Amino acid sequence: MDWAIIEQKLESLRRSVRRVKEKCPESAAAIANNYDAQDILSLNISRAVQMCVDIGTHLIAGTEYASPVTMGQTFDILCDAGIISADLAARMKKAVEFRNIAIHNYESINWTIVFAIATAHLQDFEEFAKAIISLMGNTK
Q: Within a 13 Å sphere around the CA of 66, how many CA atoms are in the beta-carbon half?
């Protein structure tokens, strides 16, 4: 296990979450009218999701578990391995759904949902990071 890679990805995760906190407007309507805020929030939330997936797949690669077939499955495997809770796995899978919309533009982004993520769900990423840091402390 290359913990230096995980530490770098955790730092990228922290940076993305910090950018969302710093740049989130006061309301969903303000996001809908501010293209810079839209870009900053959607990009950094997507990056945060990607960092969590990358960390998860890196951890899974060092176990007996099969590689995930989907990004969301990464969190199911981390749950099965006892690294994150089932509740956090479910929340992270929802974050993957947002990431897929933002990256692949499967449908138009709902800025009310982005505002909700930015104001009420960033702790999901922080909780994920804490679980990984705890694992690092137990295995280093």
A: 4
